[in-house]
Amino acid sequence: MDAQAVSGSTGGSGDWRGRAVCVAGLGVSGQAAARVLAERGARVTVVEARDDDALRERSERLRADARVTVRLGDGDTLPAGTDLVVTSPGWRPDVPLLAAAAAAGIEIIGEVELAWRLAHGGRGGREAAPWLALTGTNGKTTVVRMLACMLTAAGHRAVAVGNVGAPIVEAVLDRYDVLAVELSSYQLHWSSTVAPRAAAVLNVAPDHIDWHGSFDAYAADKGKIYAPGTIAVVNADDPVSTRLGGPDAKGFTLGTPAPGQLGVVEDLLVDRAFTPDPRREAVELAELADVRPFAPHNVANALAAAALARAYGVPPEAVRDGLRAFAPDPHRIAHVATVDGVDYVDDSKATNPHAAAASLSACRSAVWIAGGLLKGADVDDLVRACADRLRGVVLLGADRARIARSLARHAPEVPVVDVPDTDTGAMDRVVSAAAGLARPGDTVLLAPAGASFDMFASYGARGDAFAAAVRRLAESR
């Protein structure tokens, strides 16, 4: 049985008193969910498969503050009497606890679904803040932060939440005018009643196939962001996004916009979707120079954010002012240094082939640093599309051999350096090898196309290691 299909009785009700709720996972979202439910009278048991000093300290605080039961070192056994499971996003549907809940007919939801139900039940008559939601394989965090800046520039009390920033179960209980909500495919998998005011699928490319089981299942979970009555926004340049949004969706494109779309005309971002007469009227929103960092895929990000903001009635000048106020997060096409005429760029957030392709497409000639955990994704299309931009490639990480085989098939003339090391000095050797391949005018680009967890604690730690190695290289010259 599909655990997602099991229907429970919570619905929009605000009465959680006496409910026996199992919260699966003691991460940020699990802790927030446990606290909010306990405050509303639920009997909460948190289960976590791991057990270490940090988790013990976290669990003691939770026990003391929220009076919940915490069970460490056993993530498989469903607590007796459970009538609802709230799972953390990363827990796969086939883990024993969730499989047992599904088999027993117990509803399983995620923190996002819980937040929606909390916001739409038991609020004493106060209207819930509308959600402007987005998902996609790449660009989600950039777009949601751009969107929050636009909403703020328009005078709304807004915040970016969901898969970024504050836990959404906390934000929905605050007095925001509107929420900019980033949603992952995991979060959408465990959602069933969420209905945003407007929603966008930025792009869909193979990623997390090992979790979802197939590309079609992954795409279907992305498409759940479009609920009945939601204003659908699609990427008109992405066929899967376009298909998921349906025929009445508004679109954004890097080309000249048709009626019903936002797009680019010369050096301007323009709106032909949210205007009084989309067939005859185009509204200027911003200049290309307002998009930072400038790269084609980041222009698409800006257009997606603008579409959601315009769907909420944000005026054109607030779109422009929001883009100008936006500060990019680290490890996203971040220029680290120029050494001997070579630019060193950290795009460690490019954790899948689609993101790496977008990053490479912004370079005329690159020494590409790639590797990590590919999560079941194929790299042939990426290598084939970017082969003519590659001065050389330096490979590291667990799945580097798969990238090497693609390079041998589709870019056999490109020199490749394999760095098998996994010790703390590995990134210095990677950067040194890249410097040896690069020529003045080239870009040494860390855009790994894979996740970082084979060698680093996070993509941020990987990017920091790269930047530190580049600085050491600069000091040695």
List keywords for this structure.
477 residues; alpha/beta; 9-stranded mixed sheet; 6-stranded mixed sheet; 17 helices; 35% helix
Strand content: 15-25%
Largest sheet: 9 strands, mixed
Assembly type of the chains comes to: single chain
Helicity level:
25-40%
Strand order of the largest sheet: 7-8-6-9-10-11-12-13-14
**Helix/strand/pairing class, anyone?**
alpha/beta
Mean pLDDT: 93
The rounded Rg comes to 23 Å
Low-confidence stretches: 1-13
Number of strands: 20
| Shape category | globular
Q: Span between N and C termini?
A: 62 Å
Tally of helical runs: 17
Give a structural overview.
It is a single chain. It contains 17 helices and 20 strands. It has helices spanning 28-39, 53-66, 96-103, 111-119, 140-153, 168-171, 185-189, 209-212, 215-223, 239-245, 296-311, 316-325, 353-361, 380-386, 400-410, 426-437, 459-476; strands at 20-24, 43-48, 69-72, 84-87, 107-110, 131-135, 158-162, 178-182, 198-201, 231-235, 250-252, 261-265, 268-271, 283-287, 334-339, 342-346, 366-370, 390-395, 416-418, 443-446. A nine-stranded mixed β-sheet has the order 7-8-6-9-10-11-12-13-14, with helices on both faces. The protein has a six-stranded mixed β-sheet with strand order 15-16-20-17-18-19, with helices on both faces. Strand 17 (366-370), helix 14 and strand 18 form a beta-alpha-beta unit. Helix 5 (140-153) crosses helix 11. The longest helix has 18 residues, at 459-476. It starts with 19 loop residues before the first strand and ends with a helix. Residues 1-13 have low confidence and may be disordered.
